[in-house]
Amino acid sequence: MDQPDPRNASGLILSVTEPMRSFLALASDDRRLSGELRDIASDLRPRKTVPYKLLRAIWTGSDPSTRPELLGLFSGSEFVFTSPKPREKSEELKLRLLKLREVAERKEYAELVKDITPRKQVEEPFSSYKDQLGFGLHVGLTMFTGYLIGYASFRALFNRNPALSAAGGILGLVLAMLVETLLFIIKTSKDDQIQSSKSPSSLSSSSSFTPTIKKNQ
């Protein structure tokens, strides 16, 4: 029969009392026990805790006439509970926690300065009825002007031919619409570049100011 390993502390752990220590001292010299159990008893004697399985194995193999009662041996002893080893966090989890912490710090900073920093109002094209009406009148006037220029040009070139004059007016109208569309695209792209150039500076200033607030706190 294989004897328990004295280095294996699995299972119940008991605090060593003086009756236990006296029993282990006797068991280390008990010839009824195997040499391995005597070595286990000698090894457990100076310890403050002892595994229940090992103590029970030594008690079972010892001389019944000299060994103490099992209940009396355990009298005054207490269970010893060991804390489990904390689980190590993976690198991926650490990165996620770091990102969540940064997001929480940004929200906290924005909450702190929301009454100090004025909100930036982003002006969008045609955000009001007046802008829409003005742009529509401008496009209509430009197209009408293009039509008149094309009509007059073709009428002078083709001896006042009504069909060709009308075709020239339509061509002028289309060209005017294309020019107006191109100008609108250029204006919109410039506005987007201006807004994007302003946003990094504001972000850098807020990120550089955040550590200062933490240090002061």
Structure characterization notes:
The chain is mostly helical. It has seven helices and two strands, in the order βααβααααα. A two-stranded antiparallel ribbon has the order 1-2. α2 packs across α3 and α6 packs antiparallel against α7. The two termini are 67 Å apart. It comes from Eruca vesicaria subsp. sativa.
Amino- and carboxy-terminal Cα gap: 67 Å
Helix and strand run = EHHEHHHHH
Strand content: under 5%
User: Residue ranges: pLDDT <50 for 5 or more in a row?
Assistant: 200-217
InterPro entries: ATPase_Vma12
Organism: Eruca vesicaria subsp. sativa
Membrane topology: Multi-pass membrane protein
Protein name: ATPase, vacuolar ER assembly factor, Vma12
